[in-house]
Amino acid sequence: MKMVTFKEILMVAVILLLIASCRTSHDIIDPKSGEEEWKLVWEDPFKDKMLDETKWSKIPRNTADWGNYMSSHEDCFDIKNDNLYLNGIINKDRSIDTSRYLTGGISTQDKFAFQYGKVEIRAKLENAKGAWPAIWMLADQPKYGAYPRNGEIDIMEHLNYENQVYQTVHSYYTLALKQKDNPVYYNKTPVDPETYNTYGLKWYPDKLVFTINDIETFIYPRLQGVDPTQWPFDQPFFLMIDMQLGGAWVGEVDPGDLPVQMIIDWVRVSQLK
User: Fold this and answer.
1) How high is the pLDDT of residue 35?
2) Could you say which of 43, 120, 157, 194 is catalytic?
3) Are 213 and 192 in contact (CB under 8 A)?
4) Which of 12, 47, 95, 219 has the least C-beta neighbours within 10 A?
5) 210 three-class SS
6) For this structure, is 152 an active site residue?
7) Looking at 113-151, which runs of residues are DSSP E strands?
8) Does domain 34-272 correspond to CATH entry 2.60.120.200?
9) Which residue stretches of the chain are H helix?
10) Structural domain boundaries in the chain
11) Catalytic residue, candidates 152, 162, 216, 252
12) How far apart are CA 15 and CA 50, in angstroms?
């Protein structure tokens, strides 16, 4: 039997130490094996030529930082090859709409909301300076009052040319009370945004489990003994998907990078059997 030398032991120890030092709270969590069985309750595979208006509404322009260029203009939406295209474009006719840019987004508000379950969106993103595609959820009704009392769940946000996406939880607890570390309220995960990825959320009464391509990336737990605004996620939420442009976080738009697209393959919502 070959004797292991001290030098070999030392080399193994150094390698293990390096691996441990590289892990952070933002590392991907290995998927848990479990016996959960999910039942599909709502979906859109975008196989029709027109947007299904029984499921979706186009997001109107608004005064929020992300909503400066939202539009129902037909050039901001397209369905082809069984995919929905949400476009960020230069406005070529400012005689009717004076906005410099136009962007498309869709929402299930007033048409579909759910409480607890699994939502998955298979999407491909394009890069552009000032591009801010997002997949997110808001409360269907103002159970606890005005925003941010009812919380916000950001399943995916992408900025500019970054090779990573953000998954974030917002609430009165994180925004007004500044409680961003107890628990940690966001995660960023490396991805290739220009390939199809499945961005997801598994929502339970006691935790939010974010996923990318079926791998758990971030868990936001419900805590005991903290301000109750930490968990407004006990009510139905609706879904929004939008190709945002510009804003304080993402920065200025480069018109030379436009048009830019967010391509949605399908959306599925399941609940535990």
Assistant:
1) 75
2) 157
3) no
4) 95
5) strand
6) yes
7) 117-125, 131-139
8) yes
9) 6-22, 172-175
10) 34-272
11) 152
12) 55
